[in-house]
Amino acid sequence: MKFFLDTADLAEIEEAASWGAIAGVTTNPTLYAKIGGKLSDFHNHIKRICELVDGPVSAESVAMERNEIVRDGLELAAIAPNVVVKVPTMVEGLAATKELAAHGVPVNMTLCFSVPQALLAARAGARYISPFIGRFDDISDDGLAQVESIVEALGNYDFSESTVNGERIEVIAASVRSAHHVTQCALMGADIATVPVGVLKKMVQHPLTDAGLESFMKDWEKVQ
Ligand code: G3P
Question: What is the pTM of this model?
Answer without folding.
Answer: 0.95
